[in-house]
Here is the input.
Amino acid sequence: MRGKEVPLVAILLCGYGLLATAEPQRKHKRSIELSAAHQLISDVRLPTDFTPLSYVLDLRPNLENSTFSGIVKINMSCEQQTNKIALHSHFDMKIVVADIKIKRLKNNETTDEELTEKIEIQRANRMPKKPIYQIFLKSPLKKGALLELHIEFSGIIWETAEGLFKGSYSDSNGDKRHYLATHTRPNNARHIFPCFDEPGFKVPFTVSISRPKNYTTLFNVRVQSTVEMDGDYEIDHFETTPPMSTISFGFVISQLTQLNITTETPLLKPIIRIWAREDYQDELKDVYGKVEKVLTYLRNYWDEDYPLCKLDIVALPAGFSSLKPVDNWGLIVFKESDLSNQGYYLLAQELAYQWLGSWVTPLWWSDAHLNKALAGFLAASAALEIDNGQEFDGKWPMTTLYSVYYEFSKRYPHSRITGLKQEATCTKTELVLRMLNYTIGAETFKKGLRKFFADGHCGTFVGDNVWKALTEQAHADKTLPPGVTVNEIVESWIFKDRLPVVTVSRKYATQSAVATQKVYLRERPHDVPEQDKMLWWIPLVVLSQDKLNFRNTTPSIWLNKVRDVQLDGLPAADKYIIVNPEEIGPFPVNYDADNWNLLSNYLQTEEGRKHIPTYTRAKLLHDAWNLAYAGDLSFATAFNMTLFMKYERDHIVWNPVFTLIDHIGAHIDMSSVHKKFQTYVRILLTPLYEELGPYAQPNEEKWKDNLRSLARLFLCQAGYRPCIEEAQAAYKKWMDIENPDDGNPVSNQYICPVFKWGTQEEWEFGLQRVINFPSSRKQSERTYLLKCLVSCPMQSSKIERLLNITILEENGNFTENDIFLEFNMLSGGSNGYLTLFNFLSDNWDLIRQRFENKTNLWDNLIGSATGVFTTQEGYDMVSELYVARQGEFGSAEHIIEKSLRHIKEETKWSDENLPIIEKWLDKYLERANTLESKFSG
Here is the structure.
């Protein structure tokens, strides 16, 4: 099924582990891996022959030449007899192996005085196409030998945010200032020095770093001493770190200055220092207090003090727009805009890693997903605790949850893109943690995590360590049935790229019901392999109209990996039930038609809207529409669930409505039902918009303005005249200025309504602005204008004119990227793709000639012009073109064949649902005030 997906809310965090031993820690077994491997991270693991014991590292960066050199001494133990040492080292690093020495054992302790002669090296080289440096010895080493490996190395300082990188900014006097910073996560420490660059290896570091005398170096731990060097450089010697992974290693060399902040009740530990350029420090005056609040929350949650004596937080000046926060242990680096951002979530996210990430670390990247999810859960909990999550605007976790629903209900989740899969897996895992927090109890959940954490100081962990600790605590507190483990519950959710839907069919005569689970599939066809074998452990929290207690989150029963289960003790036939209130678990719920109607009728009463909380009202609405869209519920029932919206003013409940209007509208916009649907949208939204008023009021809550903007957007699309007239008035000011190419004074919200409902002259003016767009202005403004020119007009003539200019006339002001953009935007609505299809049919020979050597453009054109029809009429048109041009599609042959298969499925959907939708709309519009006088079209 087609429709715009809600973008996934990604919570990018990394983490860490249990057991600090000198032995290789990857020997742990784990029954649950959140992913077979972290797909975006190199799968090259080192042999298990050696384990590092400590690093002594001396680094000498050269800011002027953007290079660095250094010497590292790695103490290590030999785990099995071998004549080969393997280390991670980036391809650009130059290495000279200085020497290797063996330490003798005396009374089971090493003594520096008794080092032997260095071991002879046979050869040293890189593994082909792998970031591994190998040292071959003339004689094999015995198991248990303790080595001291000395390596001299040199490398380059990068201009991208990986490894050791360099940036710059202008100070208040306009002088250019440089800085160096590191980004070692996930496997970039090998850019800086040869090492065992895997999260499971946690050892102490003793580090010294040189810098210009007028610069400051911040490292994971405090400076112990500073020594002058020849010239303008000094070298800082730092305290030895606690055992840590290479992913936690980091430093910043800069001329940033420390904020001078005092508070009434400063934390005794750690010492907090915030660093920024002088002319940005006013923007950060609230950060210190926010850090204290978050640290206090996290310390209380873990029942553990912050593990280090100091914490440096750096606001890195502009220059790396893609840089995500860097959570080195004891040193967190933010972009300025991220650190000055309002709210607590992002700050709490990074501070959580100081405990869960650096102190306790994932053994390998397959467990980093869980670490990210735990940190995300804690960050959200901290934000909600500290200021009620004001930055979420009430939408957490609903926006995240809806995104996960959309992603995992696709025929092919993540579009087979690895990065999306990782984001979705982490987000789903966080929602499963939230589910456990509810179902086994928040206090039990917290005590279980504390036990896990206390057992893992300075060590590494695997998923089973977390699940085992939670299981033991839940059994002790009797919040989980005997014999049931958290491990098996979580396993049923984590292993699958799917989510379940639960259907509850009531037996009113016996006051019981049958709850059945199956795979939730929103897109057609529903032909997912092995879906009949997929089962989950699902907590069923059941509320009834006569016993509404939304604080009760204890499951009435678990669907324990069985297809169905019976629910007894339900209310009389005139009372509704609600399963999974407040989205306790990440799964939608379907009911029989009678229970849906009971819910719809109750929500249309003032009592109903008062007694059913916001999240549950939103869930009921969201579930009904999406289940109808998937073919599991009648659209008549789903539309009935929207009847209470004329009384609803909570933006949380409205949020899914806008998305679903968009989805349904996009699917039916080529049918005769579309005009009736638009009238329904007008009736639904006009009272809301007119009550909110066209303009924000002083001191108005942010959510009201967001709700107003969404209502205006959809009403404008539906032809609401006040909106169109307002847009045209704003647009005319642009048309009347002397030099319109110098800048666009019109708000983006007005552009599309003008191009859709306005005159040809207004559209032509926009076209000329794209053609004459100055290179000195932001190209994103031109892109937005071009998108609107293509996708907004109702008149095919406007779209045809643009296609003629860009394709047939080959206007030099339009690039191939512009043409790609046009095709993609035209596939978003029936007027666009129908016009594109006709343009292709009418100009086949000339277009084929134009794109003869442009396979990508040709393939994209065929897909956009043929792949989005949803009715039998559309199928016949595409089929006719396919037959008429048989053998002429070239590289796009498989694309049009795929389009025909897709349209067949969409046609089935239309045949099944459009009559139901039209019948409901006809009945609704008969008794509704259509307010047509306020609308165009």
User: Anything to note?
Assistant: The CA atoms of residues 52 and 76 lie 4 Å apart. Residues 1-40 have pLDDT under 50 and may be disordered.
